[in-house]
């Protein structure tokens, strides 16, 4: 039965109800030997995007700079960001980063950052904890105080500050706007970010930080990624 593919478990709850359930668990998943090369690629890419000052480490400075760039984008568009909001952002972004990286320990270099990301993503309750930690960052960057982001807000706040384009913003927004109402809720945003960090296979949230070049990803995932792009980033499973 354990042949490296899927296996089925047939069991009977009682004499009247028969359940035939297929568990989509591969041997790799059961034994924790998942191929994490695509997840590692995404984490390395994120590290490079976040290392604003290009000093091969990420720390609170980078994160605060993210918020300051976001505020500057609003100012440039004629939308004033009050000084209190900026102060609040600096405080919250610093705290968020310290919590997420054990006071910048995990951001000391790319290798450590990636290993830390992979290891923590395997922990129980990772998604719940990550979601809780992301909330203050969301509020810190919600300069307009709307509680949700339009495509333009998303571009100003998340995408442009990390050096990506409007096209990247459209791609990322499309894959994260789950209910297609043209606005990004905190739930949609946090789910996209969490999946970007933790999914080991190609899912639509691999594009949560914009377009990914097929040439850049590990060989095994190129075909899946190409398929996902051609099919407008749907989330159907793809055998890699
Ligand atoms: Ca840096
Ligand atoms: Ca939405």
UniProtKB/TrEMBL annotation:
Descriptive protein name: EF-hand domain-containing protein
Keywords carried by this UniProt record: Calcium
InterPro entries per the UniProt record, alphabetical: EF-hand-dom_pair, EF_Hand_1_Ca_BS, EF_hand_dom
Organism: Chaetoceros tenuissimus
Gene3D superfamilies, per the entry: EF-hand
GO molecular function annotation: calcium ion binding
Domain EF-hand: residue ranges: 164-199
């Amino acid at each position: 039965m354990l042949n490296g593919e899927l296996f089925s478990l047939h069991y009977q709850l009682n004499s009247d109800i028969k359940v035939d359930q297929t568990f989509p668990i591969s041997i790799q998943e059961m034994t924790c030997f998942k191929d994490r090369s695509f997840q590692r690629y995404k984490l390395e890419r994120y590290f490079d995007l976040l290392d604003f000052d290009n000093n091969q480490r990420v720390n609170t400075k980078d994160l605060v700079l993210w918020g300051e760039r976001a505020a500057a984008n609003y100012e440039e568009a004629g939308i004033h960001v009050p000084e209190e909001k900026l102060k609040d952002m600096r405080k919250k972004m610093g705290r968020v980063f310290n919590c997420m990286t054990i006071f910048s320990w995990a951001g000391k270099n790319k290798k450590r950052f990636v290993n830390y990301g992979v290891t923590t993503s395997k922990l129980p309750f990772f998604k719940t904890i990550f979601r809780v930690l992301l909330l203050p960052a969301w509020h810190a960057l919600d300069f307009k105080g709307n509680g949700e982001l339009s495509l333009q807000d998303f571009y100003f706040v998340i995408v442009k500050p990390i050096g990506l384009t409007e096209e990247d913003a459209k791609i990322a927004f499309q894959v994260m706007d789950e209910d297609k109402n043209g606005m990004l809720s905190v739930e949609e945003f946090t789910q996209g970010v969490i999946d970007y960090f933790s999914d080991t296979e190609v899912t639509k949230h691999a594009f949560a930080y914009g377009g990914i070049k097929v040439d850049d990803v590990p060989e095994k995932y190129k075909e899946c990624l190409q398929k996902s792009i051609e099919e407008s980033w749907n989330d159907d499973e793809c055998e890699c």
